[in-house]
Amino acid sequence: MNLLETDKLKINNTPELIVMLTWHDYTVMDAAQVFEQCRNSKAKYWGFKEHPLPLEEMKRLYSHMRDCGKTTFLEVVAYSESEGLDGARVAASCGCDVLMGTKFFDSINDYCREHKIKYMPFVGEVTGRPSVLNGTIDGMIAEARRYIERGAAGIDLLGYRYMGDAVALNKALVAGVDAPVCLAGSIDSWERLDEVRLAQPWAFTIGSAFFEKKFGEDFARQVDKVCDYMKKK
Predict the structure, then answer these.
(1) What is the 3-state secondary structure (H, E, C) of 201-219?
(2) What is the Cα Rg of the chain in Å?
(3) Global pTM value
(4) Which residue of 32, 132, 178, 209 shows the fewest CB atoms closer than 10 Å?
(5) pLDDT, tens digit, for every residue of 76-111?
């Protein structure tokens, strides 16, 4: 079922892979070609970042992804209200299903709800690019709950960018928030996939690790191997 057909993101027992056509938090310039090689892979969820592809290229790629039956994501690595709103406008113009990232602002949340976009903001003290996460676990859980109460569809958690105990954070936040959580960033080994499986988030992203061949040589085969691994474990 497409995310737009329901009021809430659908949570399954197996965490869903979101393939990000990104490396070090930037979209790769040949994203369209990479997707074309993978269009028949087992991954249903695909996305990339707000930079550096030109907007018209982004629109064409998102349109092609949707034509291939994929659910689409834009992750915005920006922390000001104005940058976040700009990202939301890009998501709307591209017809994206889900906006991930940004720091939470009511203006961004309202814009996404008006344009039927699911909004999953960051929590914690997020800085830099590639992003780094700081903050307390209890503080991030409380923050996430506030955002959900105010209408966010879920949470974008940069668990493995955390400067503390990432495994403890991932488990605690997923368990402590009654909403979909996506673990995003730096999932680059079979061991971390096992940890994701134990944490039981709604979804997780892999981008750079595929381009760095952490799960094999061929991009599309890596995607399928990860999808199969998460279902079989």
Answers:
(1) CCEEEECHHHHCCCCCCCH
(2) 16
(3) 0.94
(4) 178
(5) 999 999 999 999 999 999 999 999 999 999 999 999
